[in-house]
User: What shape does this take?
Amino acid sequence: MDGVAGIFLSVALYTKGRSLQIHNAGVDFKLMFGRERSLLNALPYYHLDYQEQLSGNPEQRWTYRLTIDGKWEPNLFNFYYRIYARLVADIDIPFQLDNDAIRKGETHVHEALREALVNALVHVDHLSSRPIVIIRCPDVFLFQNPGRLRIPLHRLYEGGVSDPRNPNLQKRIIGGSLSSTTKSSVTGL
Assistant: This one.
């Protein structure tokens, strides 16, 4: 199963009588689908911050910002879908056909931004007091997440090695087809 259906099926759900119950909903489930209060109860320093800094005016800190403000449920699922569309909004898609003569809907830039976003969300240290920060500028995308690199830097550039900080969260995201299972190198981004 792909997309949203795959993510929901990857969660341990079962029915009892007429009610749907969540079996063993851990922190990874709360991160993906939780409500603001349950997220902050489990992870007091949990914070997401997306900024678009598209103005040439140095006094304007951002032109758009999505952060935890009580106006939306700030789980990773909602955060991903709210900002991915904004990240790729101005990226042109040239007319190309795939092997089945169907128009391709994205470019390598779309794939790289999606992979960078997923990596920022999966490899974060959620116990840190620093937030996940993603900034879109006119000429650069910046992805920052707290937590030290868990593999040597040279292995990062070689690719083929993954040591996720949140393996269950990574399984939920990959199971939902938001990211590939391929262990690529950072140079691929």
About this structure: The CA atoms of residues 46 and 126 lie 6 Å apart. The two ends are 26 Å apart (CA to CA).
